[in-house]
Every structure is written in structure tokens, then in C-alpha cells.
Amino acid sequence: MMLHQRQYRLGNDRSVAFMDGSALTNFAKHMVELRKRRGWSQPALAEKAGTAANVIGRYERGEVTPSIEMAKKIADAFESSLDYMTGDVMAEDPEREKAFTERCRVAAALPKEDQDHMLYLMDAIIRDTKARSAYA
């Protein structure tokens, strides 16, 4: 994940991470889109993420930047990933994207031979799908 950020120190040993402009804009855009897609109010999302509704509104308007920890809680509430939330592309199904990402994480721990089999199968499915599209 390529999340650009700057750390700022606050009193009482608290720090706040600020995303760069494009990541913040994408995060806010995806947050609003996912919240509306699910029919959630700002208070409902706030409860799931463990923050206040007015803070969710400020994140959505880009007035305040969530810390990395809060951004992760919001992504988790949507069953999404920070990569998706801060990226340029609007996925059709962010839950499915997260499932693929999680499976890739698990597969990376498998023996090399099993990884090779998985890659072979994935390549075959992708090749066959492209061929079907080309002849459709």
C-alpha cells in the first residue's frame, strides 16, 4: 500500500497522520459512496467506527484528516481495505476486493509449489476469460 502521509505530534504523546491530497480526496469520496450504498447515516457509520457523527461529516467534506488508525477502522466498518479507500479506482465490489487481498495474504504463506499451482490456475482462468471476450 502506498499511502503518503506526514506525522504531526500533538500534546500528550498523541500523533495525527495526514494523508496527501489525492489519497484524502479519494478516501472522502469512497467513504461517502460506500456509506450511501449501504444506506447508512453518518451516525451509524460513526458508531461502527467508534467516533462521533460530526467527525464523520468532517472527514467526508475533507475538513479533517483521519489518523491511520481511524481510517483503518472506517475501512473495516465497510469491510474494505485502506488500499481501496485511498486509491483512484472505484471497485465494483470492495468487499470482494478485500476477500481477494486477504486470500493473497494467506497464499503468500503457502509453500512455493502450492503458490505456483495457484498462479497457474489464475493465469489459465484469466487467459480463458480474455479468449471468450475476444470471440464474443
Written account of the structure:
By secondary structure, the protein is mainly alpha-helical. The protein has 2 domains: 5-91, Orthogonal Bundle (434 Repressor (Amino-terminal Domain)), CATH 1.10.260.40; 97-134. It has 7 helices and 2 strands; from the N terminus they run ββααααααα. Strands 1-2 form a two-stranded antiparallel sheet. β1 and β2 (15-19) form a beta hairpin. The protein is elongated and about 50 Å long. Residues 1-18 have low confidence and may be disordered.
CATH superfamily of the largest domain: lambda repressor-like DNA-binding domains
Q: Indicate the percent of residues in helices.
A: 55-70%
Question: Spans of 5+ residues with little confidence (pLDDT < 50)?
Answer: 1-18
**Class based on secondary structure composition and strand pairing:** mainly alpha
Give me the CATH architecture of the largest domain, please: Orthogonal Bundle
Span from first to last CA? 36 Å
Which descriptors apply to this entry?
elongated, single chain, 2 domains, two-stranded antiparallel sheet, 434 Repressor (Amino-terminal Domain), disordered N terminus, 64% helix, mainly alpha, 7 helices
